[in-house]
Amino acid sequence: MNKKAGPLFYVFLAIFVFLVMFPFLWMLISSIKPINELFGDKAFTPFTSRPTLDNYISVFTNYPFLKYLWNSFVVSGITTLYTVLIASFTAYAIARLKFRGKTVILGLVLSVSMFPQIATISPIYILLKNIGLTNSYLGLIIPYTTITLPLSIWILVTFFRKIPFDLEEAAKMDGATLMQTYWKVILPLAVPGIFTTAILVFIAAWNEFLFALTINTEEKFKTVPVGIAMFEGQFTVPWGDITAATVIVTIPLVIMVLLFQRRIVSGLTSGAVKE
Amino acid sequence: MEVKYDSNPSPKKEPERTKTSSRKKGKASEKRLAYLLVAPSLILILLIAIWPVLQSFYYSLFDLRLNNPTKSEVTLTYHLDLEKYLNSYPFLINVLEDEAGKAKGSSAETLNGLIAELKEVDAGIQEDSAVKKQYQQVDDKLTNMEPVSEEVSSVKVDKSDALKLDKTLHKLTAEVKGLKGLKNEEDALGLSSSLNEAVIQPNFIGLEHYKNNLTDKRMWMAIWNTSAFTIVSVFIELVIGLAIAVLINKAFFGRGLVRATILIPWAIPTAVSAKMWQFLYDGQNGVVAHIFEKIGLVDNATDLLTTNLGAMFSIIFTDVWKTTPYMALLLLAGLQTISASFYEAASIDGASKWKQFTTITLPLLKSSILVALLFRTLDAFRVFDLVFVLTGGGPANSTETISILAYKRMFEQTNFGDGSALSVIVFVCVAVISMIFIKFLGRDLLTDR
């Protein structure tokens, strides 16, 4: 197709980037406005003559926002570590070893990734409630496995398949056992793939809402998405706080995306296209 | 997400078969290792995904309400809460005997008849030796003012005994009411009703929830809302996403920046972006609502979140904003695998750009499009966070999706039986949708190459 990019193309690109980013830009502008400029006449002016950090201070003093961030970080971090570890074993076996029932296992993993969360919530909630795990980190880490495990197995299988088989053969010739081959040959080569998977799993766990909403209802165990969604003022919606909180969660994300965009894209599209 | 899979991925040549025993051993150990490596994932998937779905279906057959003590657990048999029973039964007998002593003629006769009947039921319950043992245990604990644990307190009883108790208590209530002028009428009635609460009936109701839901207008409304949202948003996302993918499928300056831009709306938590859009759509101070009003898209800025159509439009618009870039990314990856030589050949033959698009791009992109559509459709059909935060299903349930309805039944009305039935309905819908897609995708999906 047309492989040259003309000036018109860059205009189109600029408009596209602006439209996609506009909501975030507006949140950034609004977050540094004094609270009275969020309403009335000045609500639609894209700048303020009196920038202030009041909204940011309010987010951390009026809500346990730091606690929300910490909760999200702990839950997503542990979920990522343990699912990627377990998934890497499974993906290795499926991609590299010979055994019966692979199609069935992959089919199962695919179907489970299609399960609607709402269909699993009532038994999981009742079980966690009965064993006293609601309002705890473990209460979220366990159900998050439903989402993250199939996801990581799928992505990792693609990455493991890309590693040349010759290396494995060579290791075998030298008398390495299968486990040695895995730890010393395959795993080091799979590190980029595992890292990519970890990023995607972390994002999925960080963004999860339904389980977090229903299982951890106590203020000190809420995660960031639930915390922000439940921001409430005494009389009005605290828009100032919401804009500041949105900016706070978006900035690390922007940095992460800028750093790892190549990896994220390769993880997202792996296997969705024929190669 | 990866959806292709080949049943025999190893391209390596099978080494010549030397039928020695060590070779065989090696194969067997490889198999054993493979199963060992796969086992943890399989066990987790069975426990945390498959079991809950089956359990949801099981729950949906019961009248399960977490806020109602007699219906808070699924039970197929009659139970008796001995603590409640023994906290009421002896006192009820006392009250009745007391009244019978004071009453005259037919009233005394009626009361004595009731006492005899109650005692007979009590004896019937104690007939079973296991029940009797527990009965004594609870009785002793209550006399010594000790706490009674749930396991000791709950006992399985015969259906006939439970029904007899229930019947006797109903008769008692009616007759005590009929006997005007009892001094302790209120006490007797109160004790009788708390005695009745000690009987826990099985709450199995079969397919009742499904019958109710399938004839419920609100359920069909929710299905309609979900389908409309899914079809419209996924269609728009596909068209715009494809257009963007085709346009940016070339080398240009600033690729990385564009890619990052694309990823940010996808990566931000849906709940947070929904809250953000709620601010932008706000009727008084929302800038997007203001712009829409200025360009004449809506008559009034407040229409967006307060009218039925406006709210549905807002949700679709936000979803399109959030996931079109992601769709474009998936399709772009598909486009990049199409060899440029096809297009070169076509332009030499004088085919127009549109002709090239319809005869080369679309057919070669078919499986990428179907895969992207499958995952987007399923995601859209399961939509929860976006609607929950942005509109809460309102106004007047006009944006209530099936997941939202199931959530409300379960966590707002604590009706887990009915909610589970709804979630099973969601599950069946999702299964049907994926089966249709897999049929279209055919072999591409599971066995490929």
Indicate the topology.
The complex is a heterodimer of chains A (275) and B (449).
Chain A: H1 7-31, H2 54-62, H3 65-96, H4 102-114, H5 118-130, H6 138-162, H7 165-173, H8 178-207, H9 210-215, H10 224-229, H11 239-269
Helix pairs in contact in A: 1-11, 2-11, 3-6, 3-8, 4-6, 6-8, 7-8, 8-11
Chain B: H1 21-59, E1 79-81, H2 82-102, H3 105-126, H4 129-143, H5 150-153, E2 154-156, H6 159-178, H7 185-197, E3 199-200, H8 208-214, H9 217-247, H10 255-267, H11 270-281, H12 287-294, H13 303-306, H14 308-335, H15 340-348, H16 353-381, H17 385-390, H18 402-412, H19 416-441, H20 443-446
Antiparallel strand pairs in B: 1-2, 1-3
Helix pairs in contact in B: 1-19, 2-3, 2-4, 2-7, 3-6, 6-7, 9-14, 9-16, 10-14, 14-16, 16-19, 18-19
Pfam family, one (chain A): BPD_transp_1
Domain ABC transmembrane type-1 (chain A): 69-260
Membrane topology (chain A): Multi-pass membrane protein
Description:
The complex is a heterodimer of chains A (275) and B (449). With 275 residues, chain A is an all-alpha fold. Chain A has 2 domains: 7-52, no CATH class; 63-269, MetI-like (MetI-like fold). Chain A has 11 helices and no strands. In chain A, helix 7 runs antiparallel to helix 8 (178-207). In chain A, 47% of the residues are buried. Chain B is an all-alpha fold and 449 residues long. Chain B folds into 2 domains: 79-200, no CATH class; 210-446, Orthogonal Bundle (MetI-like fold). Chain B contains 20 helices and 3 strands. Chain B has helices at residues 21-59, 82-102, 105-126, 129-143, 150-153, 159-178, 185-197, 208-214, 217-247, 255-267, 270-281, 287-294, 303-306, 308-335, 340-348, 353-381, 385-390, 402-412, 416-441, 443-446, and strands at residues 79-81, 154-156, 199-200. Chain B has a 3-stranded antiparallel sheet with strand order 2-1-3. In chain B, helix 2 (82-102) runs antiparallel to helix 7 and helix 14 packs across helix 16. Chain A: It comes from Fictibacillus fluitans. Chain A: Pfam families: BPD_transp_1. Chain A: It is a multi-pass membrane protein.
